[in-house]
């Protein structure tokens, strides 16, 4: 055995304690860490021929790399839609690495049974009792799997199996949506359906929600040809929601697969004041849920839900002599793209077991309150204005005066350079804007006030 490996094995408990101390130091220091860091160009190092052992590797990481990392896990990072990691989920993540289970097959471990239980809990949170689910790496892969099953459904309508014959046998596929997320286009590209297959349906005035009447017109224009409809349960810019129940009702008149992208917006179901936004979610054929956003588990974790497991099995079947046949309840290796699967479910199991529905409802409610509070504070000076109402957990805003691309970019840079908070740029209805997305379990009223002051101060620096 390599000398460094042998020494690390002999000292493993003490080394893990050193890692624990380092992790504690990073965690407790996250409040003082700059929320964002500009990337630096670093020279390439040669791969070491001989290692230095875990202790010295840890010291080298703490000195050379850790100071360059951002505070994105902290309470004032409002870029993209980024959660943190609850204490329980961090524990689950550590144990996931220690146990190192391949959650593909149920032949040698209870790992997939834990995943099934965790998926069932998550399904009940969102009213998806008629769906079955599987863990994937995040929203992009969840959308990919849902659309792959939709592709197979389309083939079945014309008497072919795309899984066997290929997408070329299917012909052009109409995909209708109002405000699809970028991962929808990426998934369609990977699936061979193509980005150009998306047909944009008009949205309601001043909204990102699709106009259901115009959607009906677009479906009628297909003259009975089956289609895929992608609905949103929470858009990225303004967290707008399509009327899912009204869209689902159109299936009485038109043949289409309903895929709902509820990556983070589906968590509105946990807030009694906002649960109506996801009314009808259970009617979808497939649903995307992202967990490293509002469930606050470490990257990467998402769940894909479907009401058509038979079609899912047809797409992702992994047939080999050394694998069990998919009889009864199929193993996850027959339901998702990966054959080798990290036990992502363990982080969610820990967090859901530790805090339950009520604890996660509290996170959702506090984040919604924080988004509304930030919106009120940053617009009070008159330097900034909202470009859309705060519908859930995102405040989308721009400069009140001359919101050009250059000035909004300068504002974003000034906010990031403060180290106090971080927001990301966007364009909404032709306006250059910034968006602050709340999804971290640690964010308090004091964090919101601190971030609001930094954003206002940055706006004051602009010419």
CATH class of the domain at 90-350: Alpha Beta
Contiguous uncertain segments of 5+ residues: none
CATH architecture of the domain at 90-350: 3-Layer(aba) Sandwich
Strand order of the largest sheet: 1-7-6-5-4-2-3
Question: What do the pLDDT scores average to?
Answer: 96
CATH fold name of the domain at 90-350 = Aspartate Aminotransferase, domain 2
What fraction strand?
Answer: 5-15%
Radius of gyration: 24 Å
Q: Name the CATH homologous superfamily of the domain at 90-350.
A: Type I PLP-dependent aspartate aminotransferase-like (Major domain)
Write the layout of secondary structure elements.
Layout lengths: L2 H8 L1 H17 L24 H12 L22 H13 L11 H15 L6 E5 L2 H19 L4 H4 L9 E3 L4 H9 L7 E3 L11 H9 L6 E6 L11 H6 L6 E6 L24 E5 L11 E5 L2 H8 L28 H35 L4 E3 L7 E6 L5 H14 L5 E5 L2 E7 L7 H16 L3
Parallel strand pairs: 2-3, 2-4, 4-5, 5-6
Antiparallel strand pairs: 1-7, 6-7, 8-9, 9-11, 10-11
Helix pairs in contact: 2-3, 4-12, 5-12, 6-8, 6-11, 12-14, 13-14
Q: What key attributes describe this structure?
A:
463 residues, alpha/beta, Aspartate Aminotransferase, domain 2, four-stranded antiparallel β-sheet, Glutamate/tyrosine decarboxylase-like PLP-dependent enzyme, pyridoxal phosphate binding
Would you give an account of this structure?
Keywords: Decarboxylase, Lyase, Pyridoxal phosphate. One of its GO terms (molecular function) is aromatic-L-amino-acid decarboxylase activity. InterPro entries: Aromatic_deC (IPR010977), PyrdxlP-dep_de-COase (IPR002129), PyrdxlP-dep_Trfase (IPR015424), PyrdxlP-dep_Trfase_major (IPR015421), PyrdxlP-dep_Trfase_small (IPR015422), Pyridoxal-P_BS (IPR021115). The chain is α/β, with parallel strands linked by helices and 463 residues long. It is built from 14 helices and 11 strands. The protein has a domain at 90-350: 3-Layer(aba) Sandwich (Aspartate Aminotransferase, domain 2), CATH 3.40.640. The protein has helices at residues 3-10, 12-28, 53-64, 87-99, 111-125, 139-157, 162-165, 182-190, 212-220, 244-249, 309-316, 345-379, 405-418, 445-460; strands at residues 132-136, 175-177, 198-200, 227-232, 256-261, 286-290, 302-306, 384-386, 394-399, 424-428, 431-437. The strands form 2 sheets. Strands 1-7-6-5-4-2-3 form a 7-stranded mixed sheet, sandwiched between helices. Strand 4 (227-232), helix 10 (244-249) and strand 5 form a beta-alpha-beta unit. The chain is globular. The model has no long low-confidence stretch (mean pLDDT 96).
């Amino acid at each position: 055995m390599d000398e460094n490996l042998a020494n690390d094995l002999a000292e493993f408990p003490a080394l893990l304690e050193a890692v624990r101390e380092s992790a504690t130091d990073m965690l407790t220091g996250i409040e003082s860490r700059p929320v964002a860091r500009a990337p630096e160009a670093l020279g390439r190092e040669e791969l070491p021929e001989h290692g230095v052992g875990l202790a010295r590797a840890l010291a080298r990481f703490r000195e050379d790399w850790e100071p360059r990392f951002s505070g994105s896990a902290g309470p004032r990072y409002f870029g993209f839609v980024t959660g943190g990691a609850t204490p329980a989920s961090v524990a689950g993540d550590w144990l996931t690495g220690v146990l190192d289970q391949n959650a593909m097959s149920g032949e040698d471990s209870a790992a997939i049974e834990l995943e099934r239980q965790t998926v069932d809990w998550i399904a009940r949170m969102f009213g998806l009792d008629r769906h079955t689910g599987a863990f994937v790496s995040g929203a992009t892969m969840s959308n990919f799997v849902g659309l792959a099953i939709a592709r197979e459904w389309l083939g079945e309508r014309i008497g072919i199996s795309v899984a066997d014959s290929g997408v070329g046998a299917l012909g052009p596929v109409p995909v209708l949506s109002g405000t699809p997320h970028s991962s929808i286009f990426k998934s369609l590209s990977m699936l061979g359906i193509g980005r150009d297959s998306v047909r944009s349906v008009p949205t309601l005035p001043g909204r990102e929600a699709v106009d259901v009447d115009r959607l009906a017109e677009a479906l009628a224009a297909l003259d009975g040809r089956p289609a895929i409809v992608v609905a949103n349960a929470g858009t990225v810019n303004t967290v707008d929601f399509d009327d899912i129940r009204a869209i689902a009702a159109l299936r009485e008149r038109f043949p289409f697969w309903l895929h709902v992208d509820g990556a983070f917006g589906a968590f509105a179901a946990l807030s009694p004041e906002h649960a109506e936004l996801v009314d009808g979610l259970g009617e979808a054929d497939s649903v995307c849920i992202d967990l490293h956003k509002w469930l606050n588990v470490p990257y990467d974790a998402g769940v894909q839900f479907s009401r058509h497991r038979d079609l899912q099995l047809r797409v992702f079947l992994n047939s080999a002599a050394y694998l069990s046949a998919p009889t009864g309840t199929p193993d996850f290796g027959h339901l998702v793209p990966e054959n080798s699967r990290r036990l992502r479910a363990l982080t969610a199991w820990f967090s859901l077991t530790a805090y339950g529905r009520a604890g996660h409802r509290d996170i959702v409610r506090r984040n919604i309150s924080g988004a509304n509070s930030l919106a009120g504070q940053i617009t009070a000076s008159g330097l900034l204005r909202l470009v859309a109402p705060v519908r859930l957990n995102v405040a989308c805003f721009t400069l009140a005066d001359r919101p050009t691309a250059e000035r909004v970019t300068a504002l974003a840079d000034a906010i990031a350079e403060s180290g106090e908070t971080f927001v990301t740029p966007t364009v909404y209805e032709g306006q250059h804007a910034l968006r602050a997305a709340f999804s971290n379990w640690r964010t308090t009223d004091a964090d919101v006030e601190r971030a609001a002051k930094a954003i206002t101060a940055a706006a004051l620096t602009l010419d």
